[in-house]
């Protein structure tokens, strides 16, 4: 599981996917989220603006990420 460090209170789901290089563009992030291909904390998430906070976990195409606030 890859840890994604943030220095703010939250990061939005689409921005996190781009930041983690799981997708190449914001448009791609929007599409994979809308298609129900991304999970947050074990549940499918279709909200691209979903706010992720410390401890949240994201899974996408076999990759797993955990949000860590520094």
Task: Walk me through the structure.
23% of the residues lie in helices and 36% in strands. It is α+β, with helices and mostly antiparallel strands. It has a single domain (2-69), classed as Structural Genomics Hypothetical 15.5 Kd Protein In mrcA-pckA Intergenic Region, Chain A (Roll). The strands form two sheets. It has a five-stranded mixed beta sheet, with no helix packed on it. The longest helix is centred in the middle third of the chain and has 9 residues, at 26-34. The two termini are 17 Å apart. The mean pLDDT is 97.
* Proportion of residues in β-strands: 35-45%
Regarding quaternary structure, what we see is: single chain
Write out the strand line-up for the largest beta sheet, numbering strands in chain order. Answer: 1-7-6-3-4
Corresponding CATH architecture: Roll
CATH class: Alpha Beta
Largest sheet: 5 strands, mixed
Q: What is the H/E order?
A: EEHHEEEEE
Number of strand segments? 7
Total of domains: 1
Relevant CATH superfamily: RNA-binding S4 domain
**In percent, how helical is the residue content?**
10-25%
Mean pLDDT: 97
Structural class: alpha+beta
